[in-house]
Amino acid sequence: MNKADYKGIMVFAEQRDGVVQNVAFELISKARELADSINEQVTAVLLGEGIKGLANDLIAYGADKVLVADCPELKDYITEPYAQAIYHLITERKPEIVLVGATTIGRDLGPRLSARLVCGLTADCTSLEIGEDRNLQMTRPAFGGNLMATIVSKEHRPQMSTVRPGVMRMAAKDTNRKGEVEEVTIPFDKSKFAVKLVKKEIEAKNKVDITEANVLISGGRGVGSKDGFEKLEALALCMDAEVSSSRAMVDAGLIGHERQVGQTGKTVRPDIYMACGISGAIQHLAGMEDSDYIIAINKDKYAPIFQVADLGLVGDLHKILPLLTAKIQKA
Ligand code: FAD
């Protein structure tokens, strides 16, 4: 492997059922920023069937080129065809950096690709920067989130990383941006296709995506019980907000994991994040500290959550929340 042969940044633009996932736009936005700092190009890889029309959106967020493989083999995500397609494009185009969303698909695809490419993978990154030596500095939580580790791949190419949805900021969409769309053909080895998709069951979409809420009222162990959560829900209702939580509440079975914020939950960045009875453990902060305005309610004035809060209320949430709800309802 000659390092000098590897140039530019490649982003796997994940789409599901013809909808490009936000994480793809986030990664393209970040890739654009990184590529500009080293004077390189951003190439997005779009795989699927009937998806050519999505390419222009990827350009609008910062891609210079979109490689489109539009064929029946890639209609639905199945590991082997997708891995073969991206492996082929990486070995052919030789990007210096490859970025993949740390979604269920990306978490399946990333390790398989890195094993085939023998290049290593830094999973679940929260920050990506180009170092002075031009290597990518990939930062991720380590040791249960107690420290942040910056990993650099000095010898191997490409430098590969998965990044959690919601971590990188999406750039403003610029529909006037110009870029190139190139249709590509993948030389599949179908003898390796061991899995066939027999049936697809789509989960009813009654679950909210807390990453899209503008206001989150989040509850922790201090909320205590189902009754406590009802106070949170009442406030959320009158503020047009969604309810989220710390892991303590999920572990206690009071709320579903899809509403958990933090290192092993979701990364959120709402306009207002109200942390009620949440201490502010590092693993929780990892998922919400970039919120625009943080309000914390905690009876312990030394709770670490106050260190990241813009507004802190020291007191019993069971008294404060109903007062707040009544006040807002009257307003
Ligand atoms: P606690 O830490 O117990 O805090 C409860 C707070 O409520 C206290 O500060 C207390 O003063 C306050 N309080 C109590 N009663 C009241 C009241 N009546 N009024 C006002 N305040 C009150 N955690 C996450 O949240 N998300 C994650 O994704 C996550 N991932 C993890 C991954 C790993 C590998 C590990 C090891 C841990 C992870 N955790 C995660 C757990 C994390 O370390 C903490 O244990 C958890 O965040 C604590 O939740 P909490 O703040 O609700 O509870």
TrEMBL record:
Pfam family, one: ETF
The organism's place on the tree of life at top rank: Bacteria
Keyword Flavoprotein: yes
Keywords for this protein: Electron transport, FAD, Flavoprotein, Transport
Coiled-coil zones: none
Electron transfer flavoprotein alpha/beta-subunit N-terminal domain mapped to chain residues: 9-197
Endoplasmic reticulum in keyword set: no
InterPro entries: DHS-like_NAD/FAD-binding_dom (IPR029035), ETF_a/b_N (IPR014730), ETF_a/FixB (IPR001308), ETF_alpha_N (IPR033947), ETF_asu_C (IPR014731), ETF_asu_C_CS (IPR018206), Rossmann-like_a/b/a_fold (IPR014729)
Family of this protein: Belongs to the ETF alpha-subunit/FixB family.
Protein name: Electron transfer flavoprotein subunit alpha/FixB family protein
Organism: Falsiporphyromonas endometrii
